[in-house]
Sequence to fold (303 residues):
Amino acid sequence: MKQHYDAIIIGGSYAGLAAAMSLGRAIRNVLVIDDGKPCNRQTPFSHNFLTRDGETPSAIALAAREQLKYYDSVSFMNERVVQVEKAHDGFDVITDDGKAVLGDALLFATGIRDILPDINGVEACWGISVLHCPYCHGYEFRKQETAILANGEDAFHLAKLLSQWTDRLTIFSNGPSLLDQEQRALIRSLNIAIVELGIAGLQHVNGHVNALLMDNGESHVVHAAYTRPKFQQSSELPFALGCEALASGHIKVSGFGETSVPGIYAAGDNCSPMRSVANAVASGTAAGAFINMFLIDRKLALL
Ligand SMILES: Cc1cc2nc3c(=O)[nH]c(=O)nc-3n(C[C@H](O)[C@H](O)[C@H](O)COP(=O)(O)OP(=O)(O)OC[C@H]3O[C@@H](n4cnc5c(N)ncnc54)[C@H](O)[C@@H]3O)c2cc1C
Fold:
């Protein structure tokens, strides 16, 4: 017989672990299934999460896992979920190792995968000196020579935002700039240069960028670069189960983490553009509480 849980949490990083704590504290039988690939795993230090500022991403997750040991009803499986089917009274969950478990409710805390710009060196520098968020890493690179690897609206937004952290900013649009006249004027007033040459690659040492190399052989000194990568869901299973998506590609959820399919919840990066450990923890905590209420209501409806 399949092991049965009140809730199965797919994805055991910050959002999933926070939900596990809410549910563990509600004395719910919970299984967290995780395949250990959080989006920030390449970043050396995580910032802007109260009490854990500057710790490694894995230390934060490890501390959470340690604290969850206190809750007997929370258990873990280190595997990838490859299939989920709606069962008569819940959800059948199957892992890549062929294990099958049954849950009354599901939480997808599966995160997203960044699709980095196809520029030599970006992948190696990702999270180290090629960054997506100044609140996470901007302070460490304040007042330093900084490149914006973006064009159009993304470049405009990053330029305005980053001008708070450094006045040594250059937009590298990797081809003709798509900024309109008004945007160009504002960028000029902030003393931000625009380089429209093609980018040949980043020169770096162990992920620490030191120069941007252009197609024509020019080289620009750079200590940090920002980009706004596109993304894909780390797991498409919510959509296969009928959960609605937003135009942005995020899973559509209510303020309580409910997806459009009853009994299926989502939390963290997969349903929010506000990417941060704090936000993932907040939404996971809330989703755990609302899953508990869903389970209470479901039981009462059967009386
Ligand atoms: C490079 C980088 C640096 C960052 N730096 C910071 C920072 O300094 N401060 C900050 O606050 N935020 C930072 N962030 C943002 C922060 O890391 C994310 O917002 C946060 O990790 C989101 O948590 P999550 O639990 O939603 O997803 P994730 O942390 O991405 O975790 C998702 C988990 O689900 C698992 N998973 C996915 N699919 C399956 C499946 N089918 N079966 C089993 N498991 C599955 C994955 O293996 C992973 O463990 C950074 C992000 C990046 C990319």
User: Anything to note?
Assistant: The pocket of flavin-adenine dinucleotide is lined by residues 10-16, 33-40, 42-43, 46-49, 80-81, 109-111, 114, 126-127, 136-137, 234-235, 268-269, 275-278, 280 (CB under 6 Å). The helical segments are 14-25, 57-68, 122-125, 134-137, 152-162, 181-189, 237-240, 277-301. The mean pLDDT is 97. The longest strand covers residues 100-108.
